[in-house]
Amino acid sequence: MSKKVIDLLNSARSRELTAITQYMAQHYELEDQDFGKLASKFKEVAIAEMKHGEKLAERILFLKGEPTSKPDGVAKKGQAIGEMLKTNMGLEAGAMKMYNDASVVCAAEKDQISKEIFEELLKDEEEHFNYFENVKDHIDKLGAAYLATLVG
User: Cβ atoms within 10 A of the Cβ of 46, count?
Assistant: First the structure.
């Protein structure tokens, strides 16, 4: 199988590991600040990213590659909620671009299964982006009134 595809899968896995670390760090911070509803959703997204990382690792192993265990970034800590959402939207937007591009390369390499994996992950990342964007929009429009609904 194509080394190019294995490299793309590992790059995606690195990105997923960064997202997991970021969203879990935010989950802990938000839970500590009593924003339990938002913290729970961030944890839920982190778990989805964990499943993505596992799916990528399984495909890499199937292709006789070695899955990376190194994130491509470091979690940002101590951010305000609005900054957290911007960070997360950036991670998701980057993943969406990467996965779109990767699916095209996989098609050219005649690896339909890897292409389908990238397309499946892309759908999830779009949903995550949409969630983060909606929460950010609510905070921008409603401010503290909306934040109060996320407590507990």
Answer: 18
Radius of gyration of the CA atoms of the chain, in A: 17
Taking only the tens place, the pLDDT of each residue in 88-124 is: 999 999 999 999 999 999 999 999 999 999 999 999 9
How many whole angstroms separate alpha carbon 98 and alpha carbon 44? Answer: 22
Question: pTM for the complete prediction?
Answer: 0.94
The CATH number of domain 3-68+79-149, selected from 1.20.1260.10, 3.10.450.50, 3.40.50.150, 3.50.50.60: 1.20.1260.10
Structure tokens at 11: 């790059």
Longest dimension (CA), the chain: 54
The residue whose two tokens read 């997991």 is 20
